[in-house]
Design brief:
Strand order of the largest sheet: 1-2
Order of helices and strands: HHEHHHEHHHHH
Oligomer: single chain
Number of helices: 10
Helix content: over 70%
Shape: flat
Structural class: mainly alpha
Length: 242
């Protein structure tokens, strides 16, 4: 394929992704009430609005969240279809398995981030007031803070899949990942500090799962790298025999 054909194929994939995003975005409007109820049903306080625009903001935010989650596997599939012609049959089969993994890990990250927020971060922050001040929580500020905690987890939970993909491309390998392990730990601890309150225990609770994810990524990278070496060895042996 020449450059024009590549651009035409890319445009086709982008259009399909946008169509599904728009469809999920519209569908999200029909479930806004249920989503809002899920998030606020167990709150120990009431949420208030300070302007009419906040209700519009929350409706569009939830619809966008539904669209992002629903479109993620579609986007992954379109990317796979775009690079499919350049892959061998074995690579196509292996890379296709990344698509459900990306979706499951993203949902897992959202769920884990939400549980950390509800069970640890929110109770800790509420305990700091100790009845000294009147508490007024607005819809926009609460959900902005909630998404600031949960969305990073959803993205960081994709680390194993990203590492496997980069290993298959030869960009990283398990030796490199082990070599930079201490620097990766430092970065993950900083991220955990940013998305959690200034409490050592909570920061540790947030950082430890991220470090475990990195260690899992190293294990998965070893598996992909080992298969890649075996494939290369088979190719060299067959080439020598010829």
């Amino acid at each position: 394929m020449n450059i024009t054909d590549h651009l035409s194929e890319l445009r086709k994939r982008v259009i399909w992704t946008f169509v599904f995003f728009a469809a999920f975005f519209i569908a999200g409007f029909f479930y806004v009430d249920q989503i809002q109820y899920f998030f606020i049903k167990d709150l120990p306080f009431e949420l208030n609005m300070t302007s009419p625009g906040e209700i519009i903001w929350i409706i569009f935010t939830f619809a966008t969240l539904v669209a992002v989650v629903g479109t993620l596997p579609i986007l992954s599939l379109q990317l796979w279809l775009f690079i499919k012609p350049a892959l061998t049959p074995r690579e196509r089969k292996a890379s296709l398995s990344y698509i459900p993994a990306i979706f499951v890990l993203f949902l897992g990250g959202l769920t884990f981030g939400y549980l950390v927020f509800v069970q640890l971060i929110l109770p800790f922050l509420l305990s700091l007031n100790n009845g000294m001040f009147n508490e007024i929580y607005t819809v926009e500020r609460y959900f902005r803070f909630l998404f600031r905690v949960t969305i990073p987890f959803a993205v960081l939970f994709e680390i194993p899949v990203i590492v496997m993909f980069l290993t298959s491309l030869g960009i990283v390998n398990p030796v490199l990942l082990v070599k930079i392990r201490k620097y990766a730990y430092f970065v993950l601890v900083i991220i955990g500090t940013i998305i959690s309150p200034p409490d050592f225990i909570l920061q540790l609770v947030v950082a430890v799962p991220l470090i475990i994810l990195y260690e899992i990524s190293i294990v998965l990278s070893r598996m992909v790298y080992r298969k890649k070496l075996e494939k290369h060895r088979e190719f060299m042996e067959s080439d020598i025999e010829e």
